[in-house]
Structures are given as C-alpha cells and as structure tokens.
Amino acid sequence: MLFFLATFVGLCSGFAAVFLKYAINFFAWILKGWFNTPHESFLFLVYPGVGMLLVLLFVKYVIKDNIGHGVTKVLLAVARNESKIKRHNTWSSIAASSVTIGFGGSVGAEAPIVYTGAAIGSNLARVLGLSYRHMTILLGCGAAGAIAGIFKAPLSGVLFTLEILMFNISMTSIVPLLVSSVTAATVSFFFLGDAVVFSNSIEQFNLGNIPYYILLGIICGFTSLYFIRTSLKMEDKINGIVNPYKRWLISAISLGLLIFLFPPLYGEGYESLTALLNGDVERAIGTTIFSNLFTNHWAIPIFFLLVALLKVFAMSFTNAGGGVGGTFGPTLVVGGIMGFVISRVINLLGFHEVPESNFALVGMAGLMAGVMQAPLTAIFLIAEISGGYVLLLPLIITSVISFVTIRSFESYSIYTKRIAKQGDLLTHDSDKAVLTLLKTSDLIESDFVCIEPEKYLADLIGIISQSKRNIIPVVDGAGRLHGIILLDDIRHIMFDRDKYHTTEVSQIMKEPPDIVHEDEKMDSVMKKFERSEAWNLPVLDRSGKYKGFVSKSKIFSSYREQLQQVSHE
Given a cut of 80, is residue 169 above it in pLDDT? Predict the structure, then answer.
C-alpha cells in the first residue's frame, strides 16, 4: 500500500515540477517579447517589482497565509504539526513562485516545489487517515519527488530528503522515497527530455588541480557563511518595515536597480550559469553599462565576484518584498560563479592553468554543501544534473572541505538556523529528535485536587482525603496559582485539631520550585527539572492561569514510547 502511494505521490510531484517549469518559461516568454524595444533596460528595472506586487496581492487577499521559505515550513510541519500541511500548499506555492521567477525575481523554484510535493504527500496521507509516521514518510516522498522532478535527479531527491528533511528513518522506509523519486524523474524526463539540466564542457580531472579544489572548498565555506548570515539579516531588516506596500516598493526599486547594473541577477540566473559552464563569458554577462571596462581582463572576475555577493541581496529583496521563491537556486548560481571567479583569477596570475568550467561546476557543489550543510546531496546533485561523474573526486573534496569550514562557525543550515533558535528543529540525534516531538501540552496531568488560599487546615485535610496525589495546588477562584502544599511538609500538623480552624492554607503553602508554560519546549522543561530537582512542576498558560502538573515520570514514559516508535521506523 505504501509503495503504491509513494508511486502516486511521485507522479503528482513530477507533474507539479514539470508544470512549474513550464509556467516560469511561459511568463518569461511573454515578457521577453518586449525586450527588443529601446526601453529594454527600463523593463528589466520594472518587471521583477511587478511580479512581486502580483504575488504580494495574491498571498495577502487570496491565500491569506505565509507560503515563503518552503523547506523551513516543511521542517516545522514535521516537528510541530504532526507532518500536516495545509491543502492550498499543493498549488499555491507553484502559482506564486512561477509569477515571481517568471517576472525576473532573483530566487529559485526548488523550495516552492519541495513545499508543494511535501503538501501533496501530507494531504494524501491525511485523507486516508494514516498515522503520523506514515504521513511523514509520504511527506518525504513528495519532497524527494519534487527535487527529482525539477532536476531530473532521482538519487539527489532521496539524499535531499534524508539529509535535510527526515531523521532517524529506517532502511525499509527509504524504499518509498526511492520509488517516488524515480517515478517523478521519469515524468520529468518524459516531458522535459533526457538532456542534463546544465549542459557544459567538462574536462578530465587532473590530480595537479587538487590543491586548488581544496582552496575552492575553503572559499566556498566562508562564502556560505556570508550567504547564510547576510540573507537572514537582510530579510529580518526588510521585514521590520510594517507596511507591506512600503516594503514592496523599497525591495522592488532595490532589486530593479541591481538587475539593471548586473543583468545576471535577473531571474534564477541559470542562463548565465550555463553560459559560464560552457565558456561563453560574454553571454553570461549580458548587456550592461560596464561593457567598456571589460577590455581589462581583471574586470571580468571582479564583475562576477560582485554578482555573487549581490545575489544574496537580490534574493533577500525578492523574498522580503512579497515574492515567493527559495535559496536553492541562488546557492547553485553563487557557487558556480565563485568557482569561475577563483579559476579565472588563478589563470590570470599565470602560474597554473585550471579548467574554468570544471571549477564552476564544483563550486556549485561546494556552496550547496556549506549553505545547506548537506554534502552528500551537493555531490550527487551536481553529478546528476551535469553528467559530471568524472569530477566525482573534486566534488567530494570541495564539498567536504566547504562543509567542515562552515561548521567551524555555523552549526545550522540556512533552512534550520531560525527554527533551531525556537527549539523546533529535529536532528539526527535520537534523544534531541524525541524531545522535539514531545509537546508539553500533551503531558499535562490535571487530576490534582485544588484548594483556595483563604481556606483552613480543616478544609485541606478534607481535600487530602479525596486526593490521590501528594501535592495540593493552591488556586484562587480566578484560576491563578498561589503556591503548592506538599503532604510531607504538613505531616507534623495534620492531626493537631487545635490548628484546624486557625491555620489558613496561605500560611502553610510554599512557592513551587519552578513554573512550566503549556507551550514551552521540552528541552527547556527538562532543564527546569534538572535545576529544581523536582519530580512535578505546575503548568500555567500564558495568561498565568493554572492548567495542571507535568511530571518527570510521565515525560520519561512518553520519551521511551516515542523513542521506540522512532527507532522502529
């Protein structure tokens, strides 16, 4: 049954990827019909902003939901929403991203199609009433199929899902991912042809170039650090503008100006990247006001270095200004350009000659391994989309070194950095993954009998006779917790009848060792238990009202149960 469903999800994801490709090309074809006019540069300036505005209005008034950063949203769905994704995500991301990119937005189509594929798998599982585990697997099948379909790279689809989206999955569960990926890739091959995504002129690997591939890996690692931190900082800064139309206007003008000065920033950037891979530098540059400067050979690597650095800004302006797209495509473009720049500089220095197309190709893998912190996906994706298996060794060298370099400074990928700070990130560590999946609100015990603070010891004795617990929460009529009473603390006065009607509850209660909130992350709850050395802690909602208690024994029991399920899967 699961294999059949994986095949169906793969078919749907493959068709979705093909449709997105056609939709982007359709909008680009319509708009480029005007590029032969005398106002070509002006149109470059205007089109991306128009696309961003259309998407902004579509999201604001039709979808009424945030559909940006698709891969991050999928990770959150797995960790915090039982792998459930809203139904509109099966089509809304495709609609929004096709307009964004087709009009020249400087983002990639991969994250939206991953969100779409994952939504297809999730909603199919929900309709069939499948468990969280099987829903997660089908969600992964959709994501794997989406990557396989958009790149015609089945192995990369599986690796992407395993490295970035899904954790602690058994070998048995990998088979549906393979089925979905192969099915989606087959659909893509049927409609888009069997040619590789990036045609290029690859030269044979030369052992003498290994030191330069090592250098490329180090530079890709630091470029990845710049890419992650700059893009997140830029988006946060732009999103700080409350008025969405003001935010759009600033972003649209900034993006249009960048594209006017540096034409390779227009759209995904794959056309310029393909030109670089084939040694056609002039076509990669396009029509620019800096054309007269290229008589100086050093002007070319400087120009492309600026393109690589500014691509991060162009991507941030597009996403923050209302567009919908991902960082996957820009990562490949920046990596390819950095590989070209480094190889061109080496060749201009004259002490050694290296193949520029090879370095551009390997640079794509190097930056992907750093930005996404997924070296296996980077290695095999570039090999699959370029047919460059002859470069497997330099792909491995550069990707691994880039990954090791950035891990020295940044523990999280561009997809996981924000949600890791929120405590919502699943990891390959079983303990952390299980704690992330546990919800405090699901573990609250509410069978504690409460007493009001103005009551007397006699009333408390009556409560104790009814209670099965050794803790009595002191709660007023408004539901607010004043303190707790431990049975061990009042044993010495329980049978002193002289105090029954003279000792108020407020006199014998004490402060709880700590307080837990019902939406608090489980790792934070566990730290409070360690710090307080308590076995039970009271739980409050955000308004301060008492909800019950959470016990260390209940957490351990739920942890063991969840761990067994994770290990079984």
Answer: no
* Residue 549 bridge partners (DSSP): 445, 538
Structure tokens that stand for 53 in this block: 């505005």
Helix (H, G, I), strand (E, B) or coil at 549: strand
- The CATH code of the domain at 434-568 is 3.10.580.10
Contact in structure between 488 and 470 (CB atoms under 8 Å): yes
Return the minimum-mean-pLDDT range out of 244-253, 265-274, 460-469.
460-469
User: How far apart are the C-alpha atoms of 211 and 346, rounded to whole Å?
Assistant: 12
How many Å separate Cα 493 from the centre of its chain? Answer: 58
Work out the end-to-end distance of the chain between its first and last CA atoms, rounded to an integer number of angstroms.
Answer: 16
Distances in whole angstroms, Cα of residue 247 to Cα of each of 47, 228, 255 = 17, 21, 12
- In the 8-state DSSP scheme, what is residue 35? T
Q: What pLDDT, in 10s, does the model give residues 227-264?
A: 999 999 999 899 899 899 999 999 999 999 999 889 89
* Full-model pTM: 0.79
Q: How many residues does the chain have?
A: 569
**Dihedral of the CA atoms 153, 68, 334, 252 (nearest 10)?**
140
Instruction: Look at domain 2-192 and name its CATH class.
Output: mainly alpha
Asked whether 366 and 398 are in contact (CB, 8 A), the reply is yes
Secondary-structure class of domain 207-426 per CATH: mainly alpha
